[in-house]
Amino acid sequence: MAKHQSAVREPSPAKIQTSRAPSRYNLLPLLPLLAGSGCAALIYEIVWFQLLQLVIGSSAVSLGLLLAFYMGGLCLGSVLFGRLAPFYGKGRLHARRIYGFLELGIAAFGIIALYGVPLIGRLYLAGPTNGLAGLVFRGVVAGLCLAPPTLLMGCTFPAAARWIEMRRDGVSWLGLLYSANTSGAVAGCVLAGFYLLRVHNLAVATYAAAAMNVAVALTAFLLPSAAGAWDAETLPAAPPQRARGTLWIYASIGLSGLTALGAEVVWTRLLSLLLGATVYTFSIILAVFLVGLWAGSTGGSLAIRQFSDPRLALAGCQVLIGLACAWTAYTLAYGLPYWPVDPWLSINPWMNFEIDVLRCAWAILPAALLWGASFPLALACAAGEDEDPARLTGEVYAANTAGAIAGALLFSLVLIPSMGTAGSQQILVWVAALSAAAALAPLGLMRLAWGCAVAVVLAWIASSTISEVPWQMIAYGRRVAPALRAAHLGTEANAQVPLFVGEGINSSVVIAQRGDERLKDRVFYVSGKAEASSEPVDMRLQRMMGHLPALIHPDPGSVLVVGFGAGVTAGSFVPYPEVQRIVICELEPLIPAASGNFFAQQNNNVLLDSRTSVVYDDARHSILTNPDKFDIITTDPIHPWVKGTSTLYSREFYELEKRRLNPGGVVAQWLPLYESDEDTVRTELATFFSVFPGGTVWSNYKDGDGYDLVLLGRAEESAIDVDAMDRRLKTAAYARVSASLAEVGLPSAVDLLATYVGRAPDLQPMLAGAQINDDLSMRLQYLAGLGLNSAESARLYHEILSYRKFPEALLTGSGERIAALRESLQRAALTF
Predict the structure, then answer these.
(1) 825 phi/psi in degrees, rounded to 5
(2) What does pTM read for this prediction?
């Protein structure tokens, strides 16, 4: 067998002497340019995703479309640049000018998107929004918004590569450019997640990114003319000869991209359980992942010269990626859940962020380093003699990005719902082995056979170590370590037993049971957070969310329930004879079937009621695109510190709900006091009252202190007739309604209305200067993410109560009932 020659050939001495290629000193300015470009690109990505989610929704399908079009634009731009701006021949525009114009174009489109997406949103509402046609139209909207800027972004890396001469050290420089771009992405992730969006808003973040683009462009224009200048007479007159087996290298790096983004999807889902699914957690996970890519690509770029055959190095890297995936899976199942970390030991969130960075690095950094090293190695494998660096980097980058798109969509939409996270991680190991085989394919049958044998054996060993994460991790989330310790020591009272464990397309779900045979409480968990249960305090809240608006409304005929949970709130409307229609909007299809089975008694079998229909979509998108109006809209979303849920607590969402109310309609909104600090609660109240200035607050208490609240807003303000409500509850038609209230300690209209806490006008002194959560800022998720370790619920409740006055104009009725209600409220005030 002939000795294999390296894919990267050193140019002839004559070529080196006549070619006036940029020196390494002229290339140094490129590194900060690429870093600035990467920083801006990451900020844009975060901003555009938040803007577009408000238009086309935040379901897994919508997010998949956004990601596909974002990365698809990068992929297409990187390929087109090398083909439409050829390297060979004369008459080329100077490389630095091309790069500068690209950056200016990105800045322009970034600002256009900030103001244009809301306009395109109006166009979206005029077209189909549901079914297959709606899905296609969502893709069209995402493409219209993301294609122009992302195409230009995809061109920047190949354009910068035009500075490089294709010698061995030239390939190394290409890898360093990629590394610099990734380092900028790390900075953009941290800057956007922890400062620009926390302190400012989407507009300020966009302007900051655009300013970075302009600064990069001006720097490129001002570089010395020698930087990036090639002598046109020495350029090849025709396309260069490609390296042998290039298509196999593209396949290898494409599969590597597939495993990288697939793993990011799986590991982000699991790590967000452990760390708490705040906006800061997602920023930390992404930042650690990008740091690994940056460090790995830097190391791989510097090591290229040490490999006589980069194909062997690339294949070995893919085998190690499979082993690293197994390491991460093992760590997530058997390591990190048992670390003695209790986030409630400190109310300072920054201390917990430091621990979170360490846990993320321990789990995902090894694999990220190897994915980072794979890219420069793939460049070295694919490079040919007199290669156009733009075309080389564009095609390798495109192959890697195309694989990343496939990985993100495949794992998020197909593999996790069908095989779970454990099965998905086993797939990752085997795809990594396949990537290694593709890298070895051009080296001959013998090397391929030996390499595949080693890869298969290691993949089989690695995949066999992967198992499901403990169900307690899905249930208890960030507090899993104390729970596992208590269970191990047998000190946990009423230890829980899982009845159902499932991983859906959007969320992971556990339904557990605790207690003895006489009292079997069931708890419903979603992605590390208890969302509902059959315990008395939770049952009271869930039924108040239904009965309060239904009894205040004189004739509730139609109801919209946002979030199914255990179905208890939706089921509270079943006994009402006037109700003709119950629409439930639920994001995760796994939830209604599971809860409908295990909480059927508590939710009155609402799913089997002929008046009930279920819409599987995120609430914001469903209400935005459905013109139907309702008498009652009750919203019981996940806690506001969970990333993405602040859109259901925003001023624009409340305005949307108000527009969807029939005359006399009522909106009920859940507001948790636990795991919330003062700034968070003040923002929630102020935002709701900015749309419902006559809004009222009602309390679900626990041990005499506030636990969570119900906010009520009405389309038109009018007095609540206590006598009429009491008469309704005493009729035979309302016997089941009365029984439902009595079961949670509210046997009469007076008892129900005695949960009154306050009214918007009375609470204005407390809310002075509170920030409003709007679509442009999403302020609430950043405030709530810093306050989730707070233990201020009792103090906040007492502060709200201190402003309470008897609502003379709000509650009317006979002297006897009003006197009883007044006495009940005064007695409660004395107790507190």
Answers:
(1) -65, -40
(2) 0.91
Mean per-residue pLDDT of the chain:
86
Q: Which amino acid is at 733?
A: A
Q: How confident is the model at residue 24 (pLDDT cuts 50, 70, 90)?
A: low
**Which segments of 621-689 are extended strands (E)?**
630-635, 661-672
Distances (CA, A) of 496 to 277, 500, 681: 23, 12, 31
779 vs 683: CA distance, rounded Å: 8
Beta strands in 201-271 (DSSP E): none
pLDDT confidence band for 282 (50 / 70 / 90): very high
- pLDDT, tens digit (0-9, with 9 covering 90-100), for 583-629: 999 999 999 999 988 999 999 999 999 999 999 988 888 898 888 99
DSSP 442: G
Task: Give dist(CA 303, CA 377) in Å, integer.
Answer: 9
- Confidence category of residue 239, pLDDT binned at 50, 70, 90: low
Residue 632 contacts residue 549 (beta carbons within 8 Å)? yes
Residue 230 phi, psi dihedral angles, 5° rounding:
-115, 145
508-530: average pLDDT:
83
Among 678, 748, 673, 682, which Cα is nearest to 705's?
A: 673
> Comparing C-alpha atoms, which of 48, 61, 53 is closest to residue 653?
53
- What are the start-end ranges of the H helices in 126-201? 131-161, 168-191, 197-199
- Residue 188 Cα distances to 157, 175, 185, angstroms: 17, 20, 5
- Specify which residues 700 forms β-bridges with: 708
Long-range contacts from 735-743, C-beta under 8 angstroms, 24+ separation: 736/575, 737/547, 737/550, 737/551, 737/575, 737/576, 740/543, 740/547, 740/572, 740/575, 741/543, 741/547, 743/539, 743/543
Mean pLDDT of 765-792: 92
Residues 242-259: b if buried by 16+ CB within 10 A, e if exposed: bbebbebbbbbbbbbbbb
Is 319:436 a contact under the CB 8 Å cutoff?
Answer: yes
pLDDT digits (tens, 9 = 90+) for 726-764: 999 999 999 999 999 999 999 999 999 999 999 999 999
Give dist(CA 727, CA 356) in Å, integer: 56
Pairing of strands 705-714, 661-672: antiparallel
**pLDDT(90) > 60:** no
In the predicted model, is pLDDT for residue 8 greater than 50? no
553 touches 632 (CB < 8 A): yes
pLDDT in tens, 100-134: 999 999 999 999 999 888 887 777 766 666 666 67
- Cα Rg, the chain, nearest whole Å: 30
Contacts of 670 (CB under 8 A, 6+ apart): 541, 545, 635, 636, 637, 708, 709, 710, 711
Q: How far is CA 173 from the centre of its chain?
A: 34
Q: Note the pLDDT tens digit of each residue in 545-559.
A: 999 999 999 999 999
Pairing of strands 529-533, 521-526: antiparallel
Chain segment 53-84, per-residue pLDDT in tens: 888 888 888 888 888 889 999 999 998 887 77
SS3 643: coil
Coil, helix or strand for 523?
strand
Task: Pick the more confident residue, 371 or 388.
Answer: 371
Separation CA 245–CA 412 (nearest Å): 32
Measured between alpha carbons, how far is 240 from 166 in angstroms, rounded to an integer? Answer: 11
What stretches of 19-94 show up as alpha helix (H) in DSSP?
Answer: 24-27, 30-56, 60-84
What are the φ and ψ backbone dihedral angles of 709, each rounded to 5 degrees? -125, 160
Residue 135 tokens, joined: 């899905």
Among the listed residues 569, 624, 633, the one whose alpha carbon sits nearest the alpha carbon of residue 599: 569
Query: How many CB atoms sit inside 10 A of residue 611's CB?
Result: 15
